[in-house]
Every structure is written in structure tokens, then in C-alpha cells.
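Researcher: Final request for today, and then I'll write up notes for the group meeting. The sequence and the SMILES for zinc ion follow.
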Amino acid sequence: MPTYAYKCRACKVNRDVFHRMAETPEVSCPVCGGPMVKVPCLFNMSRGSSADARRAADQAKRRADMKVELRQDYGVENVSPIGKSDFESVYKDVKASGEAVREQMAASAEKNAAKTAAKQREWKKGAVKRVPKKSRAIAKRQKERAAKDRAIRL
Ligand SMILES: [Zn+2]
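Model: Predicted protein-zinc ion complex:
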């Protein structure tokens, strides 16, 4: 026979009662003698939420698989759905556009590589100019400090 939890609404006392599933006995509170109500079965509640959790996990896995597919087949690294469209509709759009997306991704990768290379060239050029400028400034400061030291001594 299963155990059921009963609770007194008046004094919040809990009590476990054994009875058949089909039975609906009148259970009275050991403290005030009032009627106790059956507490919803925790087993059923947790089963419900684990089904939700499983559904969420399934969806997460499906999305992860889609992301892998988009990356491997089309070179799409990041998908941020715009406006109302969700990830799955973006996925469908990418699949529908197929070759066009692949070309777009390759073009943007090329553009990014060129941009990075240009930035690196600029930085190197700047660095060559920056170094003497910086050492000139240091030399100037040292000279000024030395002049100040002399002035104090005099
Ligand atoms: Zn009571």
C-alpha cells in the first residue's frame, strides 16, 4: 500500500497515511482534529518536470547539431537570429540558400583576412615610427631632470 502525505490547512501539520490508491479516507489532524488534505504526490510532479527537462535537452541537442552542421557545411560560425526569427528558422534559411551562403561566408572570411593583414601592416609601420618618438621623449625628460638637478645644486 502506498503512503500519502496529508496536511492540515489550519495548523500546517503533516501526516503520512497508508491506504489504497482508490481510497479517499477522511484523515483528521492529530493536533486540532480538523480535516487534512492530501498533498499532491511528489513523484508525479517530478516526473512531469523531468519530461520538460528532457524536452529542453532534446531541443538543445538538436540546436547544437544544427550549429555543427552550419559550421561544417557552410562555414557559419555564429548565428544570432534577427528580430522575431529564431535559431531554427535561421537554420532553415541557411539550408535553403545553400551555395549562396557558402560563397558569402568564404568572401567575408577573405575580406576579414585582408583587413587583419592590413591592420597588422599599419601597426608595424606605426610601431617603427612610435619607437624613436618614444625614446626621444624619454631622452628629453632625462635631460630636463638633469638640468633641474643642476639648478638645485647651484
Ligand atoms: Zn490541525
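Model: The chain has three helices and three strands. The beta strands are 3-8, 14-18, 36-38.
Researcher: Thanks, that's everything.
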